[in-house]
Amino acid sequence: MSRTVQLGQYIPTHSIIHALDPRVKLLCSIMYAACAFSIHTGGQLVFHALALIAVIHLSRITKGELLRCITPLFGIVALVAITNILLMQHGTCLWSWGIFTITQEGLQNAGIFSARLVYALIVGNMLLMCTTQMQLADALDSLLSPLARLGFPAHEIAMVFSLMLRFIPVLASDARAISEAQRLRSAHVTHTTLRMRLTLLMPLVIALLSCSYRHAQGLGRALDARCYRAHAKRNPWHPLVLTCRDYVAVGIFIAILAGSCALGIAGI
């Protein structure tokens, strides 16, 4: 039986990717996303696609679970593609109507920019699906701890980051429940005009803001009940320790970045 997977949800499996140190996964994900936005050749697209397929296979996360996570974000990818197609005016003209012109270079740029965004979204979702919110908070707290000596609120930033990731699937579930409640009340969004859809979205946004405020109040009361203090000294239950597999993963990641840079320099 397939599992119901939501955006930002952690999927517990026994895999090599899950067992890696969260600091390694966080830094590698950020650097990979930055490297993905520098892709400009077809060889780099294929190379990064193969690297992502290997990571997905090692994480033991099924393709269906990953697609269910990133499907709600495809609207952003489509918007980026359409924007690039319409704004790129120079090059070989393929179709023109009034102020709208579609060129061959515009289609190529739209494909490259869309692929970049898809790669970055997949990496971000893989990070959330293979790492718990507590592990991410501990990793961010550990990485920012040197700045705490200079007065930077490292622990507070890590706490806010952890709570933000924790409430992504919660708010997604609330939005889905509110949307289903609208459909039960005969608010057929899919069979109306664009103006009616925007009108029906206003109650959804207001209800979602109300749910967010209620969750924030409950979280504040829970922290007060546990006498939480941001500046209190704490000892981690599971200390973060780098192992041999973490160093091997970093080495493989550096090799991937080097291969991508080599393909970009060669223009392949």
Please explain how this structure is put together.
- This is Cobalt transport protein.
- It is found in: Membrane.
- This protein is mainly alpha-helical and 268 residues long.
- Helix content is 70%, strand content 3%.
- It has 10 helices and 2 strands, in the order H-H-H-H-H-E-E-H-H-H-H-H.
- It has helices at 16-19, 22-36, 42-59, 63-70, 74-87, 104-130, 133-148, 154-184, 194-225, 244-266; strands at 93-97, 100-103.
- Strands 1-2 form a two-stranded antiparallel ribbon.
- It is globular.
- The mean pLDDT is 79.
Number of helices: 10
Poorly predicted tracts of residues: none
Widest beta sheet: strand line-up: 1-2
Write down how many β-strands occur, each being a DSSP E stretch of 2 or more residues: 2
SSE succession: HHHHHEEHHHHH
The radius of gyration is 22 Å
Major beta-sheet overview:
2 strands, antiparallel
How much β-strand is present in the residues? under 5%
Head-to-tail CA distance between termini:
43 Å
Percent range for helical residues? over 70%
Structural category: mainly alpha
Tell me, rounded to a whole number, the average pLDDT: 79
Give the overall shape, derived from the CA principal axes: globular
